[in-house]
Design goal:
Order of helices and strands: HHHHHHHHEHEEHEEEHEH
Number of strands: 7
Number of helices: 12
Strand order of the largest sheet: 2-1-3-4-6-5-7
Shape: elongated
Distance between the termini: 51 Å
Bound molecules: zinc ion
CATH class of the largest domain: Alpha Beta
CATH topology of the largest domain: Rossmann fold
Number of domains: 2
CATH architecture of the largest domain: 3-Layer(aba) Sandwich
Largest sheet: 7 strands, mixed
Structural class: alpha/beta
């Protein structure tokens, strides 16, 4: 393997004469390296939020400096010009710092590649400074629609970090969030549960209750579509039809999503013994401004204990695990999803 890679690494790292062809080559080689260097700031970003909640005053102070960024672009997803300068000094410059360090380290392997990566980082940094911090990720958003699931970040994904600052730390590549389990917020969102009377449903509701600061809304005892206005995530946890069918709940969500300014989510999770599909797959869909996720847990010789099944469901949610992306163009998958939810 190393013999196979050797000509490739040599071609990339060799300090060939710089001509127009070499510049184009270096630019394309620097692009993935720049993306990788942004992940370093994702780690710093997470650390700053972690420090802000520390019992130690010094750490709280250091972590609190990042608050300037959240004051500049608030949870209302609007720009607050009074904080522009503080955002520049306390967020944009520190975001650039880890990238520069990465390029300097890279120069030890290849001066040209390190310089090319630094040039790209500097270009992007200068552009953000010239935009006064209002880069593509930080422009006012009145209605935030569901984000398309990709490995690369989007403005809609980053907006979720400003709405729920304890999650969604990844900026340009979502590796950090998906590995660390911060790709979905359980803490600040309001959950409503249908099918919470089963053992599995009870465990899921309990686990959500432990993670969220809001009490879980029991939609079984008051099955009304109006109750959807009080929640951010609808969880359907039983295939058995209640007073309102799953189709009615989903239609209610689709209708309500037209009025909402923040995306609504629907999670379909059922324990393995009532599910015919095998494999550790969660399916994720996006339609009519609603994010759908469905979770399927692995089947084995023994059914999973409800408590374990509940923990795994939330773990899949936190890591944004999905089997496929469903959108308006994907009629075949849409039909399959509709079949799953019994439409
Ligand atoms: Zn931001
Ligand atoms: Zn932040």
């Amino acid at each position: 393997m190393s013999e196979l890679l050797h000509p490739l690494t040599e071609a990339i790292l060799a300090e060939a004469p710089v001509n127009a062809q070499r510049v184009v080559f270096l630019f394309f080689a620097a692009l993935p390296l720049w993306l990788f260097s942004t992940v370093l700031f994702d780690v710093v970003h997470w650390s700053l939020h972690w420090m802000a909640r520390s019992p130690w005053r010094l750490l709280r102070f250091l972590g609190g400096l990042h608050q300037a960024h959240h004051e500049f672009f608030g949870a209302d997803l609007q720009t607050h010009g009074d904080y522009r300068f503080r955002n520049m000094v306390l967020h944009i410059v520190p975001e650039f710092g880890p990238q520069v360090l990465f390029s300097f380290a890279l120069m030890l392997c290849s001066l040209q590649l390190g310089m090319a990566t630094l040039a790209l980082q500097t270009l992007i940094f200068v552009r953000i400074v010239l935009q006064g911090g209002n880069d593509a990720y930080h422009r006012p958003i009145d209605v935030l629609t569901a984000y398309p699931r990709r490995w690369l970040g989007t403005a809609r994904y980053h907006a979720l970090h400003h709405l729920y600052p304890h999650s969604y730390f990844s900026a340009y590549v979502l590796v950090f969030d998906r590995l660390l389990g911060t790709a979905c917020d359980l803490e600040a969102r309001r959950f409503g549960v249908v099918g919470g009377q089963s053992d599995f449903g009870r465990e899921v509701a309990l686990a959500i209750g432990r993670s969220s600061v809001h009490p879980v809304v029991d939609l079984d005892s008051a099955p009304s579509l109006d109750a959807l206005k009080r929640i951010d995530v609808l969880m359907l946890l039983d295939t058995a039809e209640g007073p309102l069918s799953q189709s009615r709940w989903l239609d209610g969500c689709r209708t309500l999503s037209q009025e909402r300014k923040r995306p609504l989510e629907v999670w379909l999770a059922v324990p393995e013994h009532s599910h015919e599909w095998n494999g550790l797959v969660s399916k994720w869909a996006l339609a009519s401004g609603v994010i759908f996720r469905s979770f399927e847990l692995p089947s084995g010789p023994q059914p999973l204990a409800p408590e374990i099944a509940a923990q795994r469901t939330l773990s899949l949610a936190r890591r944004d695990r999905s089997g496929f992306l469903l959108n308006g163009n994907s009629a075949r998958l849409a039909a399959r999803f509709d079949q799953l939810i019994g439409r």
